[in-house]
């Protein structure tokens, strides 16, 4: 039996809004232990991926509460009740890291005396790795589902060049050029079901990672096996607010992110890793514990992509694979996902 999940109207969840500037406001869910005495042992910030919303962590929130932790789960930029700027330049990892740092400081005014652990999945994991680099003093640990750590590169690699080198990511070109956006909005229900493992009665998917969405198959896709009808309708409602332009904007930022990260790649290693060496070597992640969880049945992001990750983590990397999980590990195999998160959190906090 799967662990208990929160639902959109769950009374144990507060829905809050944080204004970042005149144009950007974030919606986030906040879950607190039922009693304030003792106070929460720490806070966990959970960042969702594409195409998802904060509710993608629905099986993890109550479990983390049971450990005495406070949980923050935002809808990321472009999603749900959070703002969805038209301009893709607003979706750089550097800018969104600043947004998340603002959110953490708003909920946890003194992170130096209250441990904050960062978790992410898919694009949210990519953001989590960068957030920890840009704001290393905010977090005491970070975990990622399905996305390995890719160190900042000294040169900019365009999306075209990236896909040419890695054809299995061909769908990213369709996402960036507007084609997937148009297809998905014409068939929103089929899009959501497809991206969350729904298939036709013949077992055929309407998504091919080498190509992207296949429009003439979307009408025949059945319900996602990862969602109850209530959760599915919630996803339809939330993706109907702004359409798919915001979520697809994340795929239009590769060059912008690359330009930002050339500065990180050129920075002295010890600025981020807090080491004593003054000799620049390979980029080092901040010296906090980290965990990477890959999914054995992820059709794009295979566990083999995690090979050699340990070299970037001076404080150690806990590497795990959920063998029977698809890309959506937290909802596909929630018991195992929670077990690994719990072990990591307890290790970081010394529980």
Write the layout of secondary structure elements.
Elements: E1 14-19, E2 25-31, E3 42-47, H1 61-66, E4 69-74, H2 93-107, E5 116-121, H3 123-134, E6 141-145, H4 159-165, H5 171-176, H6 179-186, H7 188-195, E7 207-208, E8 212-213, H8 215-218, H9 229-242, H10 245-249, H11 254-266, H12 269-273, E9 290-295, E10 317-322, H13 329-332, H14 334-349
Parallel strand pairs: 3-4, 3-5, 5-6, 6-9, 9-10
Antiparallel strand pairs: 1-2, 2-4, 7-8
Helix pairs in contact: 2-3, 6-7, 7-9
The total count of strands amounts to 10
Here the CATH topology equals Rossmann fold
> How many distinct helices?
14
Structural class: alpha/beta
Strand content: 5-15%
N-to-C CA distance: 26 Å
Bin the helical content: 25-40%
Q: Can you identify the CATH class?
A: Alpha Beta
Please state how the strands of the largest beta sheet are arranged side by side.
Answer: 1-2-4-3-5-6-9-10
Taken together, the total number of domains comes to 1
Poorly predicted runs of 5 or more residues: 269-280
In N-to-C order, the SSE pattern is: EEEHEHEHEHHHHEEHHHHHEEHH
CATH superfamily: Alpha/Beta hydrolase fold, catalytic domain
Largest sheet: 8 strands, mixed
Query: What integer value in Å does the Rg equal?
Result: 19 Å
Quaternary organisation: single chain
Give the overall average pLDDT: 93
> If classified by CATH, what would the architecture be?
3-Layer(aba) Sandwich
Shape verdict: globular
């Amino acid at each position: 039996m799967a662990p208990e999940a929160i639902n959109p109207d769950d009374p144990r969840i507060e829905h809050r809004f944080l204004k970042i500037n005149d144009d950007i406001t974030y919606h986030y869910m906040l879950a607190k232990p039922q009693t304030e005495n003792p106070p929460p042992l720490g806070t966990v910030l959970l960042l969702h991926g594409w195409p998802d919303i904060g509710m993608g962590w629905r099986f993890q929130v109550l479990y983390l509460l049971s450990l005495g932790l406070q949980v923050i789960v935002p809808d990321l930029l472009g999603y749900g009740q959070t703002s969805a700027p038209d301009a893709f330049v607003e979706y750089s990892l550097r800018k969104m890291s600043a947004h998340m740092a603002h959110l953490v400081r708003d909920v946890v005014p003194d992170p130096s005396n209250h441990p904050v652990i960062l978790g992410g999945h898919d694009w949210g994991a990519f953001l989590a790795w960068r957030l920890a680099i840009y704001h290393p003093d905010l977090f005491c640990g970070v975990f990622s589902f399905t996305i390995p750590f890719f160190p900042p590169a000294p040169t900019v690699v365009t999306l075209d060049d990236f896909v040419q080198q890695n054809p299995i990511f061909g769908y990213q070109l369709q996402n960036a050029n507007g084609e997937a956006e148009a297809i998905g909005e014409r068939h929103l229900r089929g899009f959501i079901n497809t991206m969350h493992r729904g298939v036709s009665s013949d077992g055929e998917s309407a998504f091919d990672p080498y190509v992207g969405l296949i429009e003439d198959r979307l009408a025949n896709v059945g319900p996602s096996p990862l969602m109850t009808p209530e959760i599915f309708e919630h996803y339809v409602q939330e993706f109907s607010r702004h359409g798919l332009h915001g979520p697809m904007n994340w795929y239009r930022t590769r060059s912008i992110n690359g330009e930002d990260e050339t500065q990180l790649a050129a920075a002295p290693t010890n600025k981020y890793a807090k080491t004593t060496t003054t000799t620049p070597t390979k980029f080092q992640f901040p010296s906090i514990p980290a965990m990477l969880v890959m999914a054995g049945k992820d059709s794009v992001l295979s566990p083999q992509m995690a090979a050699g990750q340990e070299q970037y983590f001076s404080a150690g990397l806990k590497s795990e694979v959920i063998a029977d999980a698809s890309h959506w590990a937290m909802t596909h195999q929630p018991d195992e996902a929670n077990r690994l998160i719990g072990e990591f959190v307890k290790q970081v906090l010394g529980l």
